[in-house]
Amino acid sequence: MNKQLVVFSMALSLLSASIAYAQGDPIIYPSKGQTPEQMEKDKYECYSWAKQQTGFDPMKAQPQAPPPSQGPTGEVVRGAAKGALAGVAIGAIAGDAGKGAAIGATGGALLGGARRNQKKSAEAQAQQSQAAANSAATSEYNRAFGACLEGRGYVVK
């Protein structure tokens, strides 16, 4: 067996083990007396075939979107600063720049917080969409991989 196939088989086995833990990957039994070497060769060939059929490569699965950001963000600070500046101007016209700045900063911070919440919601939604796409692609790939192995005389559960 060539070195590349051995290295790839080891990497595929590690990936299969990690996916199996997370998603209940199929168990493969060599029902026609296939040797371990033949089984690794068949797994590699079925990996290639399933990847071609589905367009999904579990070795290059799409990364999860980063988790939504936590804590105060620039939106709140920028909103407060803009609001304070506007409040100073309005307060100066009304005769109390300090009070206007405080009111403006509070309003600006509230608007900035609303923007931050919208951004966090959009990030969470993108993360859920990516997870669903990865799950569907992995499931389709696993079906193709299993069909290939069954066609080669393995029992796949």
Characterise the protein shown here.
The longest helix is centred in the C-terminal third of the chain and has 55 residues, at 97-151. The chain is built from 4 helices and 2 strands. Mean pLDDT is 77; it is low at 17-22. It has helices at residues 3-23, 36-54, 74-94, 97-151, and strands spanning 28-30, 154-156. A two-stranded antiparallel ribbon has the order 1-2. By secondary structure, it is mainly alpha-helical. Helix 1 (3-23) crosses helix 2 (36-54) and helix 2 (36-54) packs across helix 4 (97-151). The chain has 2 domains: 3-64 and 139-156, no CATH class; 74-130. The protein starts with a helix and ends with a strand.
Radius of gyration over C-alpha positions, nearest whole angstrom: 28 Å
Distance between the termini: 27 Å
Spatial arrangement of strands, main beta sheet? 1-2
What are the low-pLDDT stretches, counting only 5+ consecutive residues below 50? 17-22
Level of helix content? over 70%
Mean pLDDT figure: 77
- List the total number of helices: 4
Largest sheet: 2 strands, antiparallel
Overall, the morphology is rod-shaped
Coarse structural class: mainly alpha
Would you list the SSEs in sequence order as H and E?
HEHHHE
